[in-house]
Every structure is written in C-alpha cells, then in structure tokens.
Design goal:
single chain; about 190 residues; about 15% strand
C-alpha cells in the first residue's frame, strides 16, 4: 500500500486514549512512507492524525467539501488540500486516491464512509482493504451487530470477513497489507442457511 485513507471523528472523543491512538496511527503511516488520505479538516481526531503524519515528514492529502471549507475547518498545513463540491465527491475522491481504508473512532460520518467503501468492495468495484481500529473496544458493539446480520442471513460470512478489526494501528496496517479480496459475486451466490 502506498496510501491509507483514514475515516475518523471530527471530535477528539472522551479522554486521551483516542487522541493517542490517532497520533500513533498518523506517525506509523508516515514512518512507513505511505500517504495519509483523509477528510481535510483541522478539528478532532482528523486533525490529530494529519498533524502526527506531518510531524514525521509524511505526505497528507485532505479532501474537503467547499461548504465545510467556508466554515474555516480546513487544515491549511497539508501537503495538498483538494476542495470539492459535495460530500459525495469527497468520498469518491478519497476512494480514488487510497489503497486501503481505516476507520478510527468517530460518529455517523465515519460509519457512513467505511460502510460505503465496504459495500463497494462487496460489489466488486474495488479490492482494497477496509478495517476498524477497535481502540478500547470502541467498535465491539458494532462487531456484535455485524455478527447478528450474518446470523439473520442479511450479510454473507465471506462479506463480513472483508472487514478487518484490530486493536493496534500497526496490527491493522499489517492486516491491510496482507489483504486479498475474496473471489465472490454478491448477486449470483445464495445464502446457505
């Protein structure tokens, strides 16, 4: 992988743990010579990841919708900031630039972004890895819900397995580097109940 797209909160979250892992993630990506692709904001965990990568001499590319740029949320110290017309354009551009996708703790936007990437992977639109950095069990309930969707035959196990979960940034980066997209056709296979 040459670039990793980070989806994460525009809030720093509660306590210091999330900020610390966001810092470590940005640092590790930069030290590995990879580019950070992210939403272009200076606030929350988004800004923390970007600043950490930049402090290590890494390349950071932000993609920010014009409406958010006008609210003075843009990170002005990035290697490159691309301002686009909409949230849809933002997600499409980040997907185009990135070789893999990592969700750190965040809210609705983070979940929207990683689930769209996962859906595109299920449909065979790309074969890139996507995973959750499960800091302090943040995504434990989500993981259990995904298990439930498989048990209720709404998601196939092979598609659930496309989502990587790890508790440490380096472990998730390693899993992403070793990822091979499954050979599957979502529409031709049937559920085995």
């Amino acid at each position: 992988m040459q670039s990793v797209c980070i989806f994460c909160g525009s809030s720093p979250g509660k306590g210091d743990t999330y900020r610390a892992v966001a810092t470590l993630t940005g640092k590790l990506i930069a030290q590995a010579g990879m580019t950070v692709i992210y939403g272009g904001s200076k606030v929350g965990l988004m800004g923390v990841v970007a600043d950490a990568a930049l402090a290590e001499g890494g390349e950071v590319i932000g993609v920010l919708p014009e409406a958010l740029s006008r609210k003075e949320l843009a990170h002005t110290g990035l290697t490159r900031l691309e301002v686009v017309g909409s949230m849809h354009e933002r997600k499409a551009r980040m997907a185009e630039l990135a070789d893999g996708f990592m969700a750190l703790p965040g809210g609705a936007g983070t979940l929207d972004e990683i689930f769209e990437i996962w859906t595109w992977g299920q449909l065979g639109f790309h074969g890139k890895p996507a995973g959750f950095l499960n800091v302090s069990g943040y995504f434990d309930h989500l993981k259990r819900f995904l298990d439930h969707t498989v048990a209720e035959a709404f998601i196939k196990p092979i598609h659930q397995d496309m989502l990587l979960f790890h508790t440490e940034p380096q472990g998730l980066l390693d899993a992403m580097a070793g990822y091979a997209a499954p050979k599957t056709d979502k529409w031709l296979e049937r559920f085995e109940l």
